[in-house]
Design goal:
By secondary structure, the chain is an alpha+beta fold. The chain has one domain: Lipocalin, CATH 2.40.128. It is 19% helix and 35% strand. It contains 2 helices and 8 strands, in the order H-H-E-E-E-E-E-E-E-E. An 8-stranded antiparallel beta barrel has the order 1-2-3-4-5-6-7-8. The chain is globular and about 65 Å long. It starts with a helix and ends in a 21-residue tail after the last strand. This is DUF5640 domain-containing protein. It comes from Fontibacter flavus. Keywords: Membrane, Transmembrane, Transmembrane helix.
């Protein structure tokens, strides 16, 4: 009886782990190419990241360019000098300021799909969530807040 109970508990634990692994794999199936586009912070619509085909992120706040970074998606350790988990479930966004190669930031990608990107700055708590916009910066269609009013993500 005790062996049967232990066996059932072990099976339930394995099923739970498998479900978590599968969930994370499904929601992290996005390549650099899928990152291309406009991403708007869900907490502050004045903050926009534009991922471009040239391998750069253009960081805007309140309609003004505040930084330009090269970016890469990484799966190895270390990241920014920190030992991180490796494997198919773990992915990291590494950005480097193109004007100051010492300004490097590494984020753990918590989840990503074609609509949302959720990241966490390594060695920090909390998370940052971006939603991908169907619009361009030239034709914002009330998707962005350039400081001229309260505009929400559609």
């Amino acid at each position: 009886m005790k062996k049967t109970l232990k066996f059932r508990i072990a099976v339930l634990i394995l099923i739970s782990i498998s479900s978590l692994v599968g969930f994370r794999l499904i929601f992290n199936q996005m390549t650099n190419q899928n990152m291309i586009g406009i991403w708007i912070s869900t907490d502050d619509t004045k903050w926009i990241w534009e991922f471009k085909n040239d391998g750069k992120i253009y960081d805007y706040y309140n309609g003004k360019l505040t930084g330009t970074y090269s970016f890469s998606l990484e799966k190895t350790s270390p990241q920014c000098g920190m030992i991180v988990d490796e494997g198919p479930l773990f992915e990291y966004l590494r950005i480097t300021n193109i004007h100051d190669s010492q300004d490097i930031r590494c984020y753990e990608i918590l989840s990503k799909n074609e609509e949302y990107l959720q990241i966490r700055l390594l060695d920090q708590g909390g998370s940052i969530t971006f939603r991908k916009s169907a619009n361009s910066l030239e034709e914002p269609n009330n998707d962005f807040d350039y400081g001229d009013g309260v505009q929400k993500i559609n």
